[in-house]
């Protein structure tokens, strides 16, 4: 597998195919709330803050506890650190809610819905902000668990190469892309998410990357 910070030429076409597949290519519209999904990527909080400052929504909910791979970076929990980062970028503290318990994408949405209800906040639309490779899975999960709201998806607008550079670990990015591609079909089968298109070129790119050894995020 790759060890440099660049996508290997031999894998680039397949990686780009998965990268494009997970981008929902939504035009972000004004919404009642933004839901920022926790991860290792602080760019989620950056983009949520940027869109808030553009007036796209009046409220942000950051949701996630920790994964084993993020405890050292975000010891107080991913959502808590995301809020701190957003406030540093100029977001009023009162415009950010923290949901600190979720440990998977389904819980992100069910716990966020419950948190908003506890605050007496009714929403009919949301902008989901996530890592680029998580957009499609987040969309499919939200539409399964919270179908009544209108959803658009967004990520910090970076090219594949710029995103890999920002993370600093090409293997991690490729493994995440491969893992999330598998989850699109498997989670729909399990009833965790709505079905999504799965074009042949995506399936073939996924299979070639699995054969190349990118299997650490497979379920």
Automatic annotation (TrEMBL):
<feature type="domain" description="DUF218">
    <location>
        <begin position="44"/>
        <end position="152"/>
    </location>
</feature>
<protein>
    <submittedName>
        <fullName>Uncharacterized SAM-binding protein YcdF (DUF218 family)</fullName>
    </submittedName>
</protein>
<dbReference type="InterPro" id="IPR003848">
    <property type="entry name" value="DUF218"/>
</dbReference>
<dbReference type="InterPro" id="IPR014729">
    <property type="entry name" value="Rossmann-like_a/b/a_fold"/>
</dbReference>
<dbReference type="Pfam" id="PF02698">
    <property type="entry name" value="DUF218"/>
</dbReference>
<dbReference type="InterPro" id="IPR051599">
    <property type="entry name" value="Cell_Envelope_Assoc"/>
</dbReference>
<dbReference type="GO" id="GO:0005886">
    <property type="term" value="C:plasma membrane"/>
</dbReference>
